[in-house]
């Protein structure tokens, strides 16, 4: 309900010229907002934000498997008293707010006092401090930061899939002489399909709705390199003056992206049920 209600409220607004939430002088303008977002000056903000978000989504999706799947497999194979403490340590970052994670990264990579920068300089790995606000650095560091935060969450999803595999199936494959990678490809992954689809949908929606971590990295201030689509929609929708954009135009941007995402989400859900 909390997801559908705002969407239903936004539908009539995208066909008006509403500037802000307190605007009372509202006129019906049809599909003009859909035309406006693909004209200057809005298109000069909209397309770069979509591009940044799409690149982030691709890299972020890879971290789902690099971190989440790897840690889940490690947890599954780990048969020791350290299993529960290990799970707790990995899951802790997810309990920290996204805003806090963004601020922590800024502190760790501060030019003169950042712990990671000082450590890398001391070890001679880098010649000068890493500027986390650099466009190239931000493009890679930000998805890795978000992937690190959600590693525990994704690990829990994949671990649930692994634990649902009948032990006798795995034992039979061992008896038949299947090595670990053969078991992964022919037993683990096929029977984890539902978990993989769940993680995919969550990553897809989360990537396009990312907000807190970007704010923590200064997206609402001077750091334009992490100004993703959600940030742009917020700035236009809540700070629009009619010159930089209006609430109705911001909601039109959101609708233009969210409807295809909704379709992809439904398709993936049907694929999961069919499997």
If you had to describe this structure to a student in words, what would you say it looks like?
With about 280 residues, the chain is mainly alpha-helical. It has one domain (about 5-250, about 260-275): Orthogonal Bundle (MetI-like fold), CATH 1.10.3720.10. It has helices at about 5-15, 30-35, 40-75, 85-95, 100-110, 115-120, 135-150, 150-165, 165-175, 180-190, 195-210, 210-215, 230-240, 245-275. The longest helix is centred in the N-terminal third of the chain and has 36 residues, at about 40-75. The chain starts with a helix and ends with a helix. The mean pLDDT is about 85.
Keyword list:
275 residues; mainly alpha; MetI-like fold
CATH topology: MetI-like fold
The name of the CATH superfamily reads MetI-like
Strand runs, count: 0
In the CATH hierarchy, what is the class?
Mainly Alpha
- Estimate the mean pLDDT confidence: 86
Structurally, the number of domains stands at: 1
Largest sheet, in brief, is: none
Task: Write a concise synopsis of the structure shown.
This protein is an all-alpha fold and 275 residues long. It has helices at residues 4-13, 32-36, 42-77, 83-95, 98-108, 115-122, 135-149, 151-163, 167-175, 180-191, 193-208, 212-216, 229-239, 247-274.
Architecture blueprint of SSEs:
Blueprint lengths: L3 H10 L18 H5 L5 H36 L5 H13 L2 H11 L6 H8 L12 H15 L1 H13 L3 H9 L4 H12 L1 H16 L3 H5 L12 H11 L7 H28 L1
Helix pairs in contact: 1-14, 3-7, 3-8, 3-11, 4-8, 8-11, 11-14, 13-14
